[in-house]
Amino acid sequence: MKRRGGIAVLVAVAALGCAGRIDTGGGPDGGAGNADGGSDPAYDELDRGRAQARFRTTTDLMRYVFAPGCAAENNECHNDEDFPDLHTEGNLWNLLHLPCNLGIGDRTTVEEFCERQGDQVRITAGANQGFTARIGSIDVNVDDQGQFTRYTVVVDTALPQSQSGAGFEILRDGAVQPALGGGASLAGAAGDYALEVTEEQLARNEAMFRYIVEEADRRGIWVVQMFYNIILSQPFAAHHGLETQLAAPTPVAADYTRKSLAEFVRQYPNVGLHVCLGEALLDIDKQAEWCTQVILPGVKDGMRAAGLVDEPPVIIRAHATDLRVVMPPALNVYRNLFTEAKFNGESLTTWEPRGPGQETHLTLSRLGSTHVANVHILANLEPFRYGAPRFIQNSVQAARDRLGARGLHVYPLAYWNWPNAPDKTDPPLKQYQRDWIWFEAWARYAWNPDIDSVSDRTYWLDRLTDTYGTPRAAALILDAYNDGGECAPRLVRRFGITEGNRQTLSLGMTLDELVNPERYGALPDLWLSQSPPGERLQEYVDRQWNHQPHEGETPPQIVREVLDYSGKAVAAIDAAEAVVTKNRAEFQRLHNDIHCIRAMSQNYAAKVNAALLVLRYQHSRDVTDMEQAARFLAESLEHYRTLAELTDTTYAFANSMQTSHRRIPVPGAIDGQPANFHWSHLLTIYENELAEFEAKVALVKQGKLDVTAKAELKPSSR
Q: What angle do CA 354, 562, 509 make, to 5 degrees?
């Protein structure tokens, strides 16, 4: 929701009371009045005479008023950041006739210790009846001839709804005061300086969102709205001289966020919140304070405004925070809280999560609230279809049994391109249609993770028969889904740099990234938490050379498995082609995806074999290892060419987030523009890689080059 600004502008056709008395005579339409607080000649003359007698010059004023106070109070009187600088006589002269607090960038942060509370305006009729706000300033508006037209009143709180012709009254210290024109007519628009879209677009957005959440509510579904912290709308931030992303709370940001959340809950009482306390705000103690003093109170403010008794669900992500610190005080403020952490990081890698990642989940599950596992981003599955019920059921059981989760949050397969799929079609496919089996499988096992295999297979055969026309086609397609779904998880967990969206698995990896992963920021949590026990490439080669026993998954084992699984998947999908009688176009796209997964697996298998031989060479110093590595590298390039051909006319991109955050295999943006997001973009890079490696091998054979595992193997064009 785009929050309307926290400072509203009200337009009144009669003057509203200011901090002094109001002269109700002499103005048009009941009197324009005097907006400077009124006038009492007798009082003014007495006061003026006393002042003139005591302070005959500004030097006297400085000597007897400002200077003693500033010195005695450690310069806290009128020369620090909260007040005009009055510590010299010249500064005093420079400030004459200037508005109050001119030098303050944000007037809402100024503590007006010596001033009485300002007057308030209260609307007495219409859509905003009962709305009360404190008056900040009043401007007199005149026409081109200098004739009074209206007063503009700035108040400290945005109007909930635009309104005209409203009755109003003025409050001073809680008591009603007279207003010019009898408080008969006030018009106001909800403050809009925080709005990032037009009012018309906002109205359309609100209508669409309201339709979605009300229809979901009718079906017993909670919609939750995600937001990061601390994030301000661009025009709101610019208005207050702030950045749009804040690393520390400010009074203005706190007020804006709390009121925005309150209004959101008031408007959408059947919607929950999904909170990430970072990424801009990183101090854990400040996050806890922000959660307990701004976010959750804002929700409760909205509950009161909406008349809610039951607390809407609030999910707090573990990302960029420490919920061990945040949750205990949060649960003292609000009970209907959930924690959430990523299941396999930002990929789908294993149903055997372990290590530090597993411990994080288990800790969260014991904090006194319901814990949710988040199947996040799926960087290693992009952009191909994924519908492996076998892998998904095992993963849901792992979320429950190994991680302590009692809820599931599943991302789409091309998150950054939602709702459109990455396929090259006209019109674009929608992900909720293309990837129906992805969503349905997670939902099915979230409802019951323990469905027996016989009845489960029967269910999916029925669904796929409905989709593709015959039971035989359904059986073959289900097998292709299950076997094809084993490949990408295995590849990334054993050979990848990261499970995060920094890496696009389907675009391949360079030989140097496989041989020297530490150069590219390899993330240990990938193999310590998001993989079964096993060995990385260097570890495997060292153990093999030293005749040491191996532990867990090994690189050659994964190579064999992905070739086996992808081969069986291709055989099944090819056999299904002759017996598919419905949705032929979609079947052909699925058929192509399975072949893409096969080519990707073959590419990785050959390049991993090349990397193993390069690593072995550091022990053997046998040039035949390097020669064989070159042959495997050439084979990997041929499989990559096949992958590029299969995707040339079928896919617009491999990864949906096309920014410089993508680093593996190559940067995803150049000069701020998307780059290297299609397989065809990387062909030259991999061709150069092979040519340069073959040249190095030739030099090794001639005795002119000594290649070690730490030598530069990456292509020069990278």
A: 80
- Pairing mode of beta strands 271-279, 314-317: parallel
What CA–CA distances, in Å, run from 536 to 128, 206, 539, 616, 709? 65, 51, 5, 14, 14
Side chain identity, residue 595? H
Residue from 487, 445, 506, 478 nearest 349 by CA: 487
Q: Name the token pair of 153.
A: 């009143």
> Six-digit token pair at 315?
């999910």
d(CA 63, CA 88): 10
Residue 342 has pLDDT above 70, yes or no: yes
Cβ neighbours of residue 449 under 8 Å, at least 6 residues apart?
393, 396, 397, 400
Q: What is the pLDDT of residues 118-167, one digit of tens each?
A: 788 888 888 788 888 888 666 666 677 777 666 667 676 767 776 666 77
Paired residues of 188 in beta bridges: 10, 163
Each residue's pLDDT tens digit, 42-64: 434 555 666 777 677 777 777 66
Kindly tell me the burial class for residue 116, based on how many C-beta atoms sit within 10 Å of its own C-beta (0-12, 13-18, 19 or more).
Answer: exposed
Domain ranges of the chain: 8-38+116-189, 55-109, 197-335, 487-701
- The secondary structure of the chain in percent helix, strand, coil, rounded to multiples of 5, reads 45, 15, 40
Q: Nearest CA to 535 among 527, 524, 525, 526?
A: 527
